[in-house]
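Example record used in the benchmark description.
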Amino acid sequence: MTSLRDIRAGKPPSYPDQSIYAEYACRQFGLEFAEVDGGTGLIFTVGRNGRSASFGAGRGSFFPQNNATAATLANDKYFANVLMERAGVPTLGGKYFFLHERYRAHRPPGHEHADAVWHFAELGDRAFIKPLMGSRGDFAEIVAGGNALMAYLRQVAQYYDAILMQRIYTGQEYRVFILDDEVVYCAQKTSPFVTGDGKATLRQLIAAETSALDRHGISSAATGLDDTSLDRVLPYGERRAIPGRMNRSAGGSMSFAAPGNETVAFAMALQAAKALGLRAGAVDLFTDIDGDAAALRVIEVNANPSIRFLEDSGREDLILRIWRHTFTAIGLLDV
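Model output (structure tokens):
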């Protein structure tokens, strides 16, 4: 049987991860896998006994067990928060603001560029801001000070139409991956960091990390650090976390772990997914918020999450469990 490592070795670096996992799962379950885009992995089909289903990478969903309405609601962070709060799930809340004048006639007042500046001042000139429909931690940053806000809005407006602005919370971050009424795994997230060499300033170290992120289409998050700290030489071996986001795609890391109050946390994750109508997804949540061990809030829900963490952790069994659920949901495998 061909291993996941063997399939990975035969693909170009640009090949989508989930397309590799789909091919691996097809071989394990006796299904047919066929590329239809010249070996890019961007479009493929899976099938059995004359039945087939098509998948597209990039913005395409790898979880057809989620209907389009549920996935769309989850992708809009404001919509998702409203529906979760209505279902009794505490979230980080926040207000949304548009960055362009286009379509202004089709939306209610109070959500324009000037309103964002006013609300930022209400929050004490410090906030956590991210694109309303962003992913991979792109432009998810702590922004401090009016000048930093204006710079942030100008930059983000080049790539996104709207943002979500929230008060800053601190806590332990976890990702809970769910399938229907089951928790498949839970992992703790940790912030990206730079390590000092005793020579370079923090600004220089972050610049090096930024270059690496830019090559993968992810923004840097340096706006969360004040100018004075950026000019300090970081001693050899000392680590400095880059605050604000913990996405693996943005340099963060994950490890299998569950919060101390996992029963409550898992129940909240399942309730959040149910509130949005999702059968599969990853629920990111904070525990121990602002030092309160009993406090939990959902950060966001991802209806099309990456599972590269499982490959890196050697958990092909969980990759197969997830894809079995997908293939069963679309009628290619029996329960």
